[in-house]
Amino acid sequence: METLKNHPKDELLAAYAAASLPLSQALCISVHLEHCSECTQNMHHLHQLGSELMHNLQPAKPSPELKNKLFEKIDQISISAAANVKVNLPTDDANQSLPRCLHQFIKTGYEDISWKRLSSDIQSYELCRDQNNAKVELLRIRPGGTSGTHTHMGDEYTVILDGSFSDESGLYQQGDFLVRNSLDKHTPVATIDKDCICLAVTEAPIQLTGFFGRMLNPLIRRSYA
Ligand SMILES: [Zn+2]
Predict the structure, then answer these.
(1) How far is the CA of 10 from the centre of ligand 1 (A)?
(2) Which of 61, 97, 182, 205 has the maximal Cβ count within 10 Å?
(3) What is the per-residue pLDDT for 119?
(4) What distance in angstroms lies between residue 105's CA and the mean position of ligand 1's atoms?
């Protein structure tokens, strides 16, 4: 693992450890953890702290009714259902950068995805929506391409899966984790060596700025609906 410069904030890591994040944000953290030894170490400490806290709690005695209901529920769970869960592992050696936590969405690799063209520079592929309707998608920016200068109407979470890009704040590489909000205006540009592929979560459509950008905004909003 490389040393990364851009990590999730401690509050986000703590919420992930407590399993209280929506699916979209949890996916971004999971991808980052596959690349970041520092946050993996922090996560280990958070789990240790959590188990110590649980250990020191005085257990409440359940009522007989609650106990019976719980045992009934356990009986209803079919063990065979869990045994039938299959994980499709990508077979293409060229896609080693595909994180394990995305295998359930991407069967073989980035090249076999039905990418949707957003502009001459960008393609997208929607993976899912979470319980809050946040959009979880992959974005592929061609070498040297840009997504255009934009602002946000909600928070935007990005993790770099492959390649790298830069904006006004610096250079971001594989595994880097970024959060942008409505106060941020930026112009991401992919580096010229290869495609930059990101996992992106948006809570609302981005707002392009500039004359041509403003004309494209209605199209972007329509693709979000
Ligand atoms: Zn980290």
Answers:
(1) 10
(2) 205
(3) 86
(4) 23
